[in-house]
Amino acid sequence: MEKSNFENLRVFQLSEQLADNIWNIVIFWNHLATDTVGKQIIRSADSIGANIAEGSGRYNFQDNLRFVKIARASLYETRYWLRRAYVRKLLTNEQVNVIKPIVNELSPKLNAYFKYLEKAAKEEKNRKATNN
Predict the structure, then answer these.
(1) Taking a C-beta distance cutoff of 8 angstroms, is the pair 93, 60 a contact?
(2) Cβ burial, residue 97 (10 Å; 0-12/13-18/19+)
């Protein structure tokens, strides 16, 4: 299958890495941990990349921007659940050492992507206004 443009974005690739790492950790948790924290963290982590993908398929930059906002909110939710998992001793230090650099790179890249789309949306709006 040919890659779409969003699949080449580092921010999307990081979101996939994060989601896959979290999945590979949670599948080994006990039922209570999986049913409470695990399902939530998987959903929030998966939502980051899903919203980047969906936004890139939208008609204009403004629509894309809205989905990147949702992706950013999902990243914040994921960070919350990671903290809960660590405090509840569901994550080892080794697992945290794998996940933390991904989150630390993903967060500013997602903000940069948001700012890029915000600028592009303004330029698109100005271009349309000039053409009318």
Answers:
(1) no
(2) exposed
Q: pTM for the complete prediction? A: 0.91
DSSP state, residue 57: T
Residue 90 C-beta-side C-alpha neighbours within 13 Å: 24
Express each pLDDT in 70-87 by its tens digit: 999 999 999 999 999 999
| pLDDT tens string 30-72 | 999 999 999 999 999 999 999 999 999 987 888 999 999 999 9
For residues 41 and 79, the answer to whether their CB atoms sit within 8 Å is: no
| No. of helices (H) and no. of strands (E), the chain | 5, 0
Q: Give the whole-angstrom CA distance, residue 39 versus residue 15.
A: 17
